[in-house]
Design brief:
Largest sheet: 5 strands, antiparallel
Number of domains: 1
Number of helices: 3
Number of strands: 5
Structural class: alpha+beta
Oligomer: single chain
Helix content: 25-40%
Radius of gyration: 15 Å
Distance between the termini: 24 Å
Shape: globular
Length: about 120
């Protein structure tokens, strides 16, 4: 339960976890998941990947594949968007995670990579 609270609220809002029932926590997680999926569905890879698209892709990736850690932002790396995030309870910085600006290809050192970022929605 504590791990689920950390994922939903982050360490700074963890006290909120103790004010909610399990049903409320799961409902909030489902609402957040729906929001993340909807943002990713609006990405059109054929148009190229802008900063907002890259953020939607990275957020969906972290939501699906990173149970402990989080997405912190995107920065320009020339031909790619560099994904900034943390992994694990210690919040180790993620290095080598990027999204190709032209193709949308996702390369991740902490989980699966994707040729098509919309495949994150599958499964």
């Amino acid at each position: 339960m504590l791990a689920l609270g950390l994922i939903l609220f982050g360490p700074t809002n963890i006290d909120r976890l103790f004010d909610l029932s399990l049903e409320q926590i799961l409902a909030e997680q489902e609402a957040r998941h729906s929001k993340v999926r909807e943002r990713l569905k609006r990405v059109v890879v054929a148009d190229g990947i802008g900063r907002g698209d890259a953020a939607a892709i990275a957020e969906a990736y972290f939501f699906k594949h990173v149970g402990c850690g989080g997405f912190n932002g995107i920065r320009d790396g020339g031909r790619v968007w560099i994904v900034e995030g943390a992994f694990g309870f210690a919040g180790e910085p993620v290095k080598g995670f990027y999204i190709d600006k032209k193709s949308g290809r996702v390369v991740s050192p902490i989980g699966p990579s994707y040729e098509d970022p919309l495949d994150i929605l599958k499964g």
